[in-house]
Amino acid sequence: MNKLTLKGLGKVFNGEDGREIEALRDINVGARSGEFICIIGSTGCGKTTLLRLIAGLTPMSTGQVLLDDKLVENLNRDCTLVFQQLSLFPWFSVQGNIEFPLELKGVDKSEREARVKELLKMVGLEGVANSKPYELSGGMQQRIAIARALAYDPEILLMDEPFGALDEKTRQKLQNVLLEVWKKKKKTILFVTHNIDEAIVLADRIIVMAPEPGRIINDIEVTLPRKRDRLTNEFIKLHIEIRNLLEVSD
């Protein structure tokens, strides 16, 4: 049984001139529990819209979202979104940012502190609990955002190009951090990226999308053993396959 199932998902927006714009058409995807899926495609193919539909932040025009085969309506409280644009509270410390969802859940102070300590260790940021986010680097802030998302303890983690604004060295470091967190937490992850290498490094499966309207053109299972070496023939061959798919779809 799939953890998450998308059936015939579609979205139509009304343009400024009154014309309808079909952003997504007939999206059918199943994600198993603990599966890491990357979604890749050119700008305008509806990747972010797809995550927003799954989270219930944008109403769908057609189709269904099911969690454990149960229909999800309105806000999907079993999902948490992590964006490229950080949404950390600058007036809170790192501790306060990660504690925030736990406070909303009514978790007592001692347990909150223990959970924050565990999550900071998991993302490699022990010792910064009392810092303000703006005092830390972009890569460290993104680790905090991941820790805060995990504090919600979601069934599904939705990630919208979370490393897109980072330099390549920091990006690769955070890819490794995320993989370690994923192995420990066993969360189902849907991760949007424009970076082919990033998708191959992270994913169990890669969903390739095309624009106008946004649709799935391929669903590729990544069978390369972890930890994945970008310089192997198999890695390069898969990179070229995905690049060719994206070029044809534009």
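Second entry:
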Amino acid sequence: MKAIVVHQYGGPEVLKFEDYPDPAPGPGEVLVRIAATSVNPIDYKRRAGLTKDFYPMTFPGLIGVDLAGTVTKLGPGVEGFSVGDQVFAMADNTYAELCVVKAAVLAKVPKGLDLIQAAALPLVTVTGNQLLSATGIQAGQTVLVVGAVGNVGRSAVFTAKDRGATVIAGVLQKQMDQAKTIGADQMVATDDDDVIASLSPLDAVADTVGGRTAGKMIAKVKPGGVFASVVGAPQDAAKYPSVKVVPVFSHFDRKTLEFMAAAVRDGKLVIPISERLPLSEAAKAQAEAEQGGSGKILLVA
């Protein structure tokens, strides 16, 4: 098969489109012919060696965590899937034409959802849902989602609204118009200290940004409230012992992925796709992604 092979840590230029051995499914595994994968921050951080202490690479190796494709072969003991099924998942080594995935972490693409579009969803929608869930927010309570126009943020906003919470979208001033489209009840500019100072106490914060913004937001959480984050605790979290700080690490959940994907299919949640590039142009895709932007970049195999 063709794949994006990494021979050493470095910049986007270390991503090489070349031949790589075909994987074969073992017990409980499924072989998927990939239709598309997507670019996530974890991909380029791993390529650069920024995650080697907890998520190292073995060279030559592959990267990538999102996939959508078609089942081509079942390993021994696999039930619930058939050759020809359209599936998607969070997996490993997805920048490739073929990928072996444990059946336990595979989900079927909901009918009516485009297979290529489905590749944009696994990591960001599940992470956003789990981030919001970690706040413990309940109907009638108020949660502020920091970085609300990002893909994880959008998913957290949708989940909070689905649970009956009042949602404040925390975005940069330049993103205020964009934030009007994501379904939040209110918006605040996180780079306007006067606006932040005037905020009423919050039941919870769901943070996707970190840094100085996180420090400002934890100060607005009520005693006994929750500050959940996918980017680590605020540096000054110790100043707020009455706030429960919850780190969130995304893990696969089939029901969550199916629920979030159905919301995308039905137009209730929008995960913008900014570009579709061939798999061979992964270096270009990652270079663009590292420059920022809210739209997902897909790599079509």
